Predict the 3D structure of the following.
Amino acid sequence: MSVHSAFAPAGAQAARIYEHWLLYWYVALAVYVIVGGAFLYLLIRSWRSRPESIAEPTQPVQHRMAKYVGASSVATALILILLLVSAAITGHDLASYGQKPNLQINVIGHQWWWEVQYQNDDPSMTLMTANEIHIPTGQKVLLNLTSSDVIHSFWVPSLNGKRDLIPSHQNTLTIEADRPGVYRGQCAEFCGLQHAHMILYVIAEPPSKFSAWMRHQLQPAPEPVDAKLRHGRDVFLNEPCVTCHTVRGTTALGTVGPDLTHIADRQTIGAGTLPNTPGHLSGWVTDPQRAKPGILMPTIPIAPNDVQPLLVYLESLR
Ligand code: CUA
C-alpha cells in the first residue's frame, strides 16, 4: 500500500506544510462561520420586522454601518497579513531543512518517466535507476531536479511540496521520511499526452535495509543460468531494445529509456502505468503503445518463439 496525501505527512517538510495548511483551514472556517452567522442573523431579523416599505437609513444607522464596514476591512487586512507572515515563515523553514543533506540524488524528468541517479564521490557507487526512489529513513535527501524535454513537476505529497523540473536548469528539493513506507508521487505539471501516467514511488526503508538494497542494485545483471535465459538475453541484445535501454553487465548501453538492470525488482512498469507482473510485462513488451499511447517506445514485432524467452529473461533481472 502506498500513501499519496498531503494530509498524511511522513516527514518534517510535509508536516510543516500541513501545519501551514491547518492555519489557513481554521482561519477560513472561522471567517465562514462568522460571515454566515451574521448573514443568517440579519435575514431572520428582517423577516421578523417585515418593514412595509424600504426607508432611507437614518443618519445614526448610516454611521453605524460605516463603522462595521471599516472594522471588517481592518480585520480582513489583519487576517491576510497573518497568512502572509505564516507563508513566509513556512518558506523559510522549508529552505533551512535543505542544508547538509546525507544523500544526493539527481532526478531527470522525461516524457513520461523519471530517471534517478544516486550521486557518490566514488564513481563505482553511483547508481542509475528509474521511477522508484529508495531512501533511508531519518536522513535528508537532496534531489537535484532537471528535465530532458519539457517542464515536469516533482510532487510526493506525503514528503514535501511541488518543485518544477526545467530543461537546462537545476532546481533542488529536500525530502526526508521519518518512518518506513511507500510514498506515491505524481508529475504535477501537464507535460503531454501521458502526463497522468508519470508516477513515481519513494520507498523509505531503515538505513540498513536501504544499504542492502543499494549494494544489490550496484551489482550488474545476473548472468543467464540456462538455455532459455540465454535465448532471452540474445533476443534482447539482437532486437532494437539495446538502442534505448541499459542492462549493466551486457552490451546494452542505451540511455534513451529506463535502465533495466534490475527491472524485475521494481513494483510497476511504465512509470506506474501497470503493476510489474508477468502478464502486464508481456502486454507491455509486445505492445507498449496500447498501454501508454504516445510514448517513445515503439511496438517492435518480436517472433512468437522469442517472446517467452525474452519475458523470462526480463523477469530474471532481479
Ligand atoms: Cu511530466 Cu506531467
Observations:
- The helical segments are 12-49, 59-97, 207-218, 227-238, 241-244, 278-286, 288-291, 304-315.
- Residues 59-97 form the longest helix (39 residues).
- The CA atoms of residues 239 and 302 lie 8 Å apart.
- The mean pLDDT is 93.
